[in-house]
Each structure stands twice: as C-alpha cells, then as structure tokens.
Amino acid sequence: MRATYIHGAGDIRIETVPDPVLIDPTDAIVRIVRACICGSDLHPYHSKPAGNPRAIGHEFIGIVEDTGSAVHTVKRGDFVIAPFVWSDGTCEFCREGLFTSCLHGGDWGDENVGGGQGEATRVPFADGTLVPVPGITEDSPLLPSLLTLSDVYGTGYHAAVTAGVRPGETVAVIGDGAVGLLAVLAAKQLGAERIILMGRHQARTDLGREFGATDVVSERGEEGIAKVRELSGGHGAHRVLEAVGFMPAYEQALGVVRPGGAISRVGVPQYAEAPAGRVLFSPNVTLTGGVAPVRKYIGTLLPAVLDGTVNPGRVFDKTVSIEDVPAGYVAMDERTALKVLIAP
Amino acid sequence: MRATYIHGAGDIRIETVPDPVLIDPTDAIVRIVRACICGSDLHPYHSKPAGNPRAIGHEFIGIVEDTGSAVHTVKRGDFVIAPFVWSDGTCEFCREGLFTSCLHGGDWGDENVGGGQGEATRVPFADGTLVPVPGITEDSPLLPSLLTLSDVYGTGYHAAVTAGVRPGETVAVIGDGAVGLLAVLAAKQLGAERIILMGRHQARTDLGREFGATDVVSERGEEGIAKVRELSGGHGAHRVLEAVGFMPAYEQALGVVRPGGAISRVGVPQYAEAPAGRVLFSPNVTLTGGVAPVRKYIGTLLPAVLDGTVNPGRVFDKTVSIEDVPAGYVAMDERTALKVLIAP
C-alpha cells in the first residue's frame, strides 16, 4: 500500500510499504477513506532532524477490514472514526474519558502502528480507540465533517468545555486556523453570546462568522488587546480559547481575559516557561485546556453532524490524492490552504 | 489611638496616631477587637525599602463605632468581620462575588484607610466590605475562629473550591502554614477522602491531622513527590492546594498532580515566569486559584464556626497585646509561632 512518511524538515514522501497486519488480538485493520493534514503536522515539517523516517498523519476515518479475536465493538465493514491517539479504553484514565493519558496508549506512527496519511493502518486496542458510526457509506457527503471529529472539532470543543463557556458569556478565540474556527462553533453551541475571533485571514474569519463569531479583531499585540477589551465591556472576555500555541498568542490571551475568567489552551505550547505568577494569580484567572481527549466528545458532537445542524467539514478548502500529500503540506505551510483533505 | 506601622524591612513600630474619622457617607469606623499577623505580612517585613511608613495588617474583627449617612447594613454596636480587602459591593465583580477585583476597592493601609493591626480603623464602603455577625460579644470564645474568616480560612477554602475538590478524591496540600492547614479543613468539608499534607513542622502537621489530613509527607523535592504519588495510587493527587507561593512549592505541585487534575494556588507567587508549557498541557492539568475573595465565603463557612463543628481558630498559637506586635513578627518570622493573634 501507499503511505506518507516524513524523513526530515520539508521532506514528505509517499512510499510503498507492506500492508498492515493484525499483531495483537485487540487489533483492527482499517482501510482509510479520508484523512487530513493537521496544523500540528507542520511542527515536524519545520523541524524534524533528518533520518529515522516516521509514518505521519493522525486524523482519519475509514472502514474496518479485519479484527483480532478479542475485538467486540467493531467488525469488518464498519465505518469508524479514529481519534488522534489510540487508547486501551479500560485503564483508569480512559474510564474517566481522559483517553490522551491512557496508560497503554500511543500515537499514530509509533512502531508497528501506521500513520493516518496512508491507505490503511493497524489500529491497536480497536475497542478502546475506534468509534463506529452506523449507516455511513464511503460516498456520504458527511465525510469531511465526520473527519473533523478525529481531531480539530473535538479539540475546539475541548477548549470551550474546559474554559467553562456558559450561556450569555463573552468568548475570545485566538487563532483562525481550523481549531480556532471550530472553537468558535463550539462556543456558539455552548451558548456564548458574544464570540470575538482574533485572526487576520479574511477567508478564514468569514468562515468563523458563519460558525458564530459576532466580531472579528484582526489587530495583534496591544492594539488587538485594546479592541477585544472594548468589545467586551472594558474588562475582557470571560473565556479565552487559545488555538495557536506560540508565546504571542498566550500573551494575547493574558491581555484579553477578564478577572475571574479562564484561558484554555489547545494549541500545543511551543514554550516551556511562561508568565504564570501574579499575572494569573491577582485576577483569579484559571489556565486550563490541554491535549484534547477527542474520543470523549465524539458521542456528544456526532448527532448535530449527522443531522446537518453543523457542518464543521467546511474547514477543508483543498483536497488531494495520496500522491499529492507533499503538495498539501506546502499549501498548508504557505497558508494557501486552511486545511487539506486527503482522499487516498 | 495606637496602631502598627512598617517603616522598612524588620522595622515594625507601634505609634500613636489620630483616631480615624468618617470621610465618605459610605464609611464606618470599627474598633478592632482582634487582629492577627499574616504570613503575607512577612513579605514586606523581609523586603520593604526604608521610608514611606505604612499602616499594616489586613485581618480583623471588631465593633462598629460609627457609620456614615449612606451605610445601611451595619450600625453602631454591630460585631463585624472585615475581609482582607475592602470593596464597594456593587460593581460587576462584587456582584459576581469576586470582591478582590472590585473596581473601586483597595487594601487596608491605603491612604486614609487604617491597617488592621491597630485599635481602630476607617472602613470604606462599609456595606460592601463588612459582614455583621449578630449575637457575638467581645468575650466570645469564638473570636479566634471568627477572625480566620477575614483571611486564612476563606483563603484555604478558596483553594479547595477553585481546585474543584469533590467527594472521594485525593487532595495534596503543600504547606503547613495557617492557610495550608485550613485548606486541609476545607478539603475535608468538601468530602475529600484522602488528604495528604506536605509539611515538616510536627506541631503544625499534627494540627493538620486534627483538621482532616489522612497522611503527612515531610520529605521535599523528588522524594516528597515519590511519596505522594505512592500514597495516591501511583498517578498523583486529583487536586493540589499550593499554600506557599515559592517556586519549589509550585514545582512540587507539578510533580504530585494527577493527569486531568488541578493545581490551585493561594500562596502569593514570588515569581513571574514558571514552567507552564507542556508540563501542564500534555496531562491536561488546570492551574487555578488566586487572591481569595473571602467575603464570598463568610456566609458559607460561618454556620459551622458558630455551632462549633469546626474550630479554625486553633491555628493561633500565640497572643500578643498591641505593644508586643513587633515581637509577634519576630515569632512568626522565626517560626516559633504558627500564627499570632493580636488583642489590642
């Protein structure tokens, strides 16, 4: 089969590799119907040292091709959503819904586990990882939206939930990437009254408005902070959803959060130390969020996707075949595409 | 009247100053019945530059001596508890209970406002600041416990509430000062099943056990972290209440918190930058807490104090007259006293 490997910074290759096989009785083999490229894939794309090529991609939906003898919740032919990490489903963290802290879980692309940007993959702990969706076929128009449940939509929702968004509140969303836009949608679903999207790519912020943003602030730094505070009654937003991960975004969050409010981060922090003393303490600001345990949210978010109430798949603005995945990385990196769908 | 002033590091003086007078119609004058010295008073005691003497003390209970024409909720002769900041009671933050972010509030010892460690003080915004307690007289045996509601008990409770302590959980409390010990009591009241107190002054940790600590860990650093993790099933405590404020205490908190858990800080951070990137993000740890809006909690905590169910006043292990307040600072600083009560 064909699969995507990263060999080093800027070096994405499509290779022919052996078809995946069952190793453990808890495994499944999934043929991948749709996958995509994540903003977080750009981090290794920018910085991976050369050597030790690794299968890449962690968002996919597909059809179960085979299962081990100990798999009970999915069977051959089932349509499934794969969260962006695999998890045993039985450890104390999985039982609490914190699948990202699974004691026996791991990442797509780990040894003997395929990446998401290929034609098929071995799935460890199929019962604890995959979420079957009955009635979906490979030609469903819902595929793009279902695919967002493997990462970006669940991640945006995690930001809104952990920040504690409540009806009537003002929410600021930092970042107009796919996660930021879906954090807007999530905040809207949780009843936020005013949703201020900070971003400056108009095509993206226009989509953000369709998802529920009431205001767009394109300014950055002090000017952007002043604008958000002005829009939120002078004291800032109750909840700030930070969907970037770089220090300026965190500093922006500190600037726009209201005393007693919360900053939820779902962009992977690209820093180790940060302002976190009295700047949080004096105004009683809570810092929350983290790696989203998206599997927990699939059941909650699925009904509105299935009945068409929401259409999170609109974040995809470019589709490539597997052979064109390297071009998809270029498009994401150069920001000519918001998010790239892969139809292997 | 006599009142306590700080002139510089280590320089606490008792001085004769004019009696306080009403300035605004929303003021009250309160005669102070009991006050105390706070761990946080030791920060200026260690580091205040010489010059610009300032009235000190921010925890007191007393009797209303006089009120301005616009004061409606307290009257002459009322017994009152004063929270450690004054607040208007009417701004948008006060209405939400975040009295520490009052738009027009301030600190005891500010210009034209007395400190708590004196015989009397002017109280701005008496309606928004003071909490009257009917039926209490100056010889009540409950005075020490009522005094803890002005700061330390409410601060410990804030740690437990903001951390989200729930019945059955494991809580680690870092610090065996008065706030840490009362955070233990608060965690117990909120139903924590296992409460691990990290501290190494046995007289204090013994009191912590009486307040509800099920375990005491006297080790620090990696050794202390290993011990707490061992006591909490290997993965750490659901809630960590950090009642110190120095970096080693924060690092300890990071080491003992369970994935998906929360660290609540109520010790004023003595640092600006801190590890706050993936160390929080990857395990989905929430960082919360802050300056406690204790006025919000007085109504909740008062009944169990009045009926004797709890006795938070046990944190006081030394009593001084006003003339001996400087000796009280020495005792707190040298840790020969846990917390010093002042009977002016």
Automatic annotation (TrEMBL), chains A, B:
Q: Name one Pfam family in it.
A: ADH_zinc_N
Ranges where the Alcohol dehydrogenase-like C-terminal domain occurs: 178-289
UniProt xrefs under InterPro entries: ADH-like_C, ADH-like_N, ADH_Zn_CS, GroES-like_sf, NAD(P)-bd_dom_sf
| Annotated keywords | Metal-binding, Oxidoreductase, Zinc
**Quick check: keyword Zinc in the entry?**
yes
Which cofactors are reported in the record for this sequence? Zn(2+)
Q: Which domain of life is it from?
A: Bacteria
Q: Which one of the record's GO molecular function terms can you name?
A: oxidoreductase activity
Q: Where is the Alcohol dehydrogenase-like N-terminal domain?
A: 25-134
Task: Give the record's family classification.
Answer: Belongs to the zinc-containing alcohol dehydrogenase family.
Annotated PANTHER family: DEHYDROGENASE, ZINC-CONTAINING, PUTATIVE (AFU_ORTHOLOGUE AFUA_2G02810)-RELATED, ZINC-TYPE ALCOHOL DEHYDROGENASE-LIKE
- This one is known as IMP dehydrogenase
Q: Which organism is it from?
A: Mycetocola tolaasinivorans
